[in-house]
């Protein structure tokens, strides 16, 4: 009976069949639950805040808007692609194929017009030859760099600068930053901007919530002690989260992987300054 229920649920919800996806969904549900708990406890305990919402509704409306926008941005970022190297290779190959088809159609049109002399522009010929992925990647590295130095040992493909293999996703990511467990995806070239906006919104929401918690403690510190204990414990975790988010904002321009590469290989400093900003 239980096996039938399990099989039926897997058919209705294919995402639950994979343990990794189940873990990712669980983390996302936990993060949403944390947001609801922090806001809900404050609304439940602080009667003055409810009265203020009636007299000054725009204040509460702004907070709820920021709350909703932050969660929406979270799901948008979690569902976005970080930009995989394999996708870039496919795009390069598609561009190469289209260029070849355009060249073939142009040659056929010249033949129909009775053209005898066929001229080939050297710049176009070089462009056709340079659209392969290997040559594109080689041009991004300093001359003389060995191909094995930027070939992924897991995917066996050439990695452009700042790309790295993610062991959680088992794929090479362009401009790899880190694998975010809470988002369930990597942060890379494709979604770094979305991630930055999410961190900004989350920081603003966290800061606003900390202020509301402090105002509650200031006005109700002697009313009910067990409520104060709960608020203080939540406030401590909020402050720790706020410090972490502020550090992320400060270092969002120079990511964890970039710092490791720069300080491990000093000769990449000039290359990083010229090509990676």
TrEMBL record:
Query: One short Pfam family name for this protein?
Result: DHHC
This protein's UniProt keywords = Acyltransferase, Lipoprotein, Membrane, Palmitate, Transferase, Transmembrane, Transmembrane helix
GO molecular function: any one?
A: protein-cysteine S-palmitoyltransferase activity
Per its UniProt entry, which superkingdom is the organism in? Answer: Eukaryota
User: What does the record give as EC number?
Assistant: 2.3.1.225
State the PROSITE patterns in the record. DHHC (PS50216)
Task: Give the protein name, as stated in the record.
Answer: S-acyltransferase
Q: Tell me what organism the protein belongs to.
A: Trapa natans
